[in-house]
Amino acid sequence: MIRLLTCLTACTLALAAPRPTQAQNSGVLLGLHVSIADSGESYRTYFIAREGSTVRLAASGPDLLVPRPSGFWRVCVVADHGLSDGQLGQWDTVIAGPATIKRGKCAARDKAVTEAEQQGSMCSTSSTNQILFVASRAISIGIDFEGDCGAHPTGDEQIALRSLDTDSVIDFSALVEPGRSSELVAASLEAARVAYADFGIVDTVESPEYDTIAVAKLALIRQWGVERGAGSWHAVGQMSCSPHVACGGTGRRFSIPGFAAPASLVGHDGLSVPLQTIKAVFPGVRDAVSSPRGDLIVALSDDELVAFTEGHTDWVTAFAIDEDAGLVYSASEDQTVRAWDLATGESRGAVYGVSPFRSLAAVQGGVYAGDEAGNLWRLESAVAAVVNASVS
Predict the structure, then answer these.
(1) Which candidate, 203, 195, 201, 200, places its Cα nearest to that of 251?
(2) Which CATH number fits domain 310-392: 3.40.50.1100, 2.40.10.480, 2.40.128.270, 3.30.1340.30?
(3) Of 33, 107, 359, 364, which is most buried, counting CB atoms within 10 Å of its CB?
(4) What do you get for the CA distance between the two ends of the chain, in Å?
(5) Which residues pair with 329 in a beta bridge?
(6) Which residue ranges make up each domain of the chain?
(7) What is the pLDDT of residues 279-336, one digit of tens each?
(8) Following CA atoms 229, 225, 291, 59 in sequence, which dihedral angle do they give, to the nearest 10 degrees?
(9) Rounded to whole angstroms, how far apart are CA atoms 93 and 113?
């Protein structure tokens, strides 16, 4: 277990891809939407490499560096603002291009509007773009609009899924498995009802006096994007809402965690151990991703990245924690169970089995591991003994 960094105050995964390495090595490429105190940076990319039996933070840098067939591209968000016809506008623009583009291209494009210009403007509008997901050929962006031109401020949330090759819209529904389009619509409607639950009734109704009551009425926009959550990439949708006064805005973006994003779109999305298993050991973990080989797991919390790999050469299958001993155990298909110091992350030894280990459990009296051959192993400070070779 290696603690890679502790500089983040909040972060969300936007990119997860295999890290280009030599054949004998492994690793992952992570792009994070971050919030770092007193820093203007909002996106960073990390190269986490496994080299033999060690893992290290090989490199990091600002913006999202996306692997493309022709080489890496830099993807970033720049802020623009200006005053036109008495209207003050502020908006974000997403830039994507070869990584040779200098860092300055991702800085603010023009000078800030003065305080006098702000006070003299009749209206103000703004839009904020957040990169929710990016892969070698596609990008998913969440767009938030706000406007203030008098008594009724407006707001809108949208989603965009676009091709990095042509900048054209990608039809998410056309990429799902045949026959699942109706499932996508049903899951979207259910998620929308949850998102709009605070508005109560979500349709127009008539009172006994035959007068129409102004309540929120929803309409599904058949355009979806991708975002990260619960250890996988899933769909995110959008609804239009009317009337504006009842909705508090013209539209809302909402997560659809029950509908996984198509593999053809997101590419690598492996997690060799269920996220809930990792959370049972480290409750603060919000997300995690495995290397393509499954021999490296990187877990993400609100303030750090933690990598699990120490010596495993195949898929990691389970975790367990012995709080009394201060140890964390990991099991693997490489026929080993390894232990680390919970406080320092240092290795505390390994158990070498006779078949792939499949499970770990911490119970009163110790930690037990089960292997593919049906053996049950009792672990004591990383020294094990077979206690029952015929477990059913």
Answers:
(1) 195
(2) 2.40.10.480
(3) 33
(4) 32
(5) 320, 339
(6) 136-266, 310-392
(7) 876 778 888 888 777 767 888 877 777 776 656 667 778 888 887 788 888 888 888 8
(8) -100
(9) 17
